[in-house]
Amino acid sequence: MMLALYIYRRYVALCGILMTFVLYAMLLTAYHMATPRFVLDPEMNGIKHASSFSLRKVSDMLAGRKYAVLTFDDGPYGHGLDEQILATLQKHHAHAVFFLVCSHINNDTRGELAKFESAGDVIGNHTYDHPNLAQLSQPDIRNQIESCNQRIADVTGKRPNYFRPPFGSTTPAITTVVKSLGMQQVLWNANSEDSWVKQPEQMMYFSLTQTEDQSILLMHETPLTAAVLDDMLTQLEQRGFQFVLPDQLSDNTAIN
Ligand SMILES: [Zn+2]
């Protein structure tokens, strides 16, 4: 009887050690794996894992790792603000999608597009001059998006893959046009509210409370955002966030 109890205790202890070891090995392996790949999740307006690699997910959960996409609308801003945002992103090893309003691309700001690209960031289309597309006819919707694609291509040599409608205002007609142009529509499910808040702590509050794992965070290229960004990314990192880009469609030849 005593012997059986002794063996049982040893068995339990061994199992415990073994499980701890396996868990540790899993964590360690996943830590050294490259950042997982993500794709857009149109249902959630966020991102989802490109593949269901469960070891990575378990490891992320155990380690409290989270992923978010940073997006900046309404640029290029000029006056050094785009560079300020880029420098902060670089400091945090973060990449972002910049949804540009093409009427903002002029002789003073066209140079910013090359800076976004060489920093590894992504340029998206945010219409030619920021109308509410829901109020436009289908040909006008198409023209707003296509003329902006053309403008960006004239400057960078590449048409953008991503489109974000102004005010997040989208309809089935808009979605149809976006798809017919071979593009992906990107909305958001976390809002920094930086289009209307005036105080840094307000923007910080909304960004930190709304950003969850696999969120897309909406921000704008504004002086407030540029000033808050460094602190905000630091606090999100302390909560386990890494900032990633979703995979883009491999080609958009449908446009040509
Ligand atoms: Zn906008």
Automatic annotation (TrEMBL):
PROSITE patterns: NODB (PS51677). Keywords: Membrane, Transmembrane, Transmembrane helix. Residues 66-244 form the NodB homology domain. The chain crosses the membrane at residues 12-34. This is NodB homology domain-containing protein.
